[in-house]
Amino acid sequence: MESFEGIIEFVAVAERKGFSAAAKQLGCSTSHISRQVARLEERVGCVLLARSTRQVNLTENGALYYQHAKDLLIGLQQANEQVSLQQVTLDGVLRVSSAGGFAEHAVAPALMQFALAHPELTVDMDFNSRMVNFVEDDVDFVIRYGELADSSLIARKLIERPMMAVATRDYLSQFGEPSHPSELKKHSCVISNNDVWKFSENGKLENIKVKGRWRSNNANAVLAACEQGLGIGYMPKSTFSASVEAGRLQPILQPYWGDGASSWIVYQNKRFMPLRVRMAIDYLVQYFTDWEDKAL
Q1: Which domains does the chain have, with CATH numbers?
Q2: CA 165 to CA 163: how far, in whole Å?
Q3: What is the pTM of this model?
Q4: pLDDT digits (tens, 9 = 90+) for 140-176
Q5: Closest alpha carbon to 12 in 42, 45, 56
Q6: Where are the beta strands (DSSP E) in the chain?
Q7: Where would you tag: which of 29, 114, 141, 239 has the fewest CB atoms within 10 A of its CB?
Q8: For the segment 85-140, what is each residue's pLDDT rounded down to a tens digit?
Q9: Cα dihedral sign for 219, 223, 226, 228?
C-alpha cells in the first residue's frame, strides 16, 4: 500500500504549479510535499515534475501519470462520499406529485423501498395530473409522462415508454381487425389524453386522429374500458401487458407501434436542495436505469 503515498501531494503540486501552493492547500509543510513527491518519483522510476526557480511543470511521463492519478483520487472521493451518504439519516417530509399508471405501479414501490432505507423519512405522494405550483403546493418533485413544456424547471428522464395497440377478441370479431392505422378512423377508440395517435411506418411518423365512446385521463380507466370491449386502446405497453398475457386483450397493428414518449422526474432549478430531495431524485434515476417498460 506504500505505493499510494505521495499521489495526493503530486496531484496538488501538478494542479497548483508549485510546492508551496500545494503545501498551503493540503495544510502541511513544503518539505513534506517535496519528500513525498521525491519518494513517489523514486518508486515509479522516472521524473514526474520539471522543477525551476519560477515554476513547476509536468514532464511527459508526469502528464500521463497525473491523468491516472487524478482519476484515482476522483474515484476514491466518490467512494468516500457514497459510503458517507449511506450513513446519513434522512428526515422530514418528501412531497411528490405524480400521475399515471407508471407512477402508481413503478415509482411508488421504488419510493417505498427508499422510505424503508430511511426510517426517519416521511413520503407524501399525491396522485393527480394537474399543473403543480412548486411553491404554493410545497412539492419537491413531480413525475410526469409525455412532452414537457419549456420552462425554468429541470426534467430528468426516467424511462422510455413504447406503445401498444389492443382490443378484445369480441370487439375484433364484431367490427373487424384494422390492418393499418388509417383504418382506425372507422373504429371506436378508447382515448386517454390525446385523440391524435402517433404511429410509425417505414421510419416515418404518421398521425391518426381518432374518436370513440370513452375518454379518460386515467390509465386504469382506459384499460378497464378496453377490457369491456368499448373499443381499441393505444397506450404504453405496460398498461396492457398483464391483460394481454392473461388473454383479455389482443395486440393489433404491431408493425406500426410508435416509440411513445418518456416518463420524467421534474423539479425546481434551485441552488439549495434538501438532502432528502436530492438523494430521492438520484435514487429514482438510478433505480430506473436499464429498467424496461414491462408488465406492471
Answers
A1: 2-86 (1.10.10.10), 92-161+262-287 (3.40.190.10), 163-259 (3.40.190.290)
A2: 7
A3: 0.58
A4: 999 887 776 656 788 888 888 889 999 999 999 999 9
A5: 56
A6: 49-51, 56-58, 92-98, 121-127, 141-145, 154-161, 163-167, 189-191, 196-201, 204-209, 214-215, 232-236, 250-252, 261-267
A7: 29
A8: 555 678 889 999 987 778 888 899 999 999 999 999 999 999 877 777 766 677 89
A9: negative
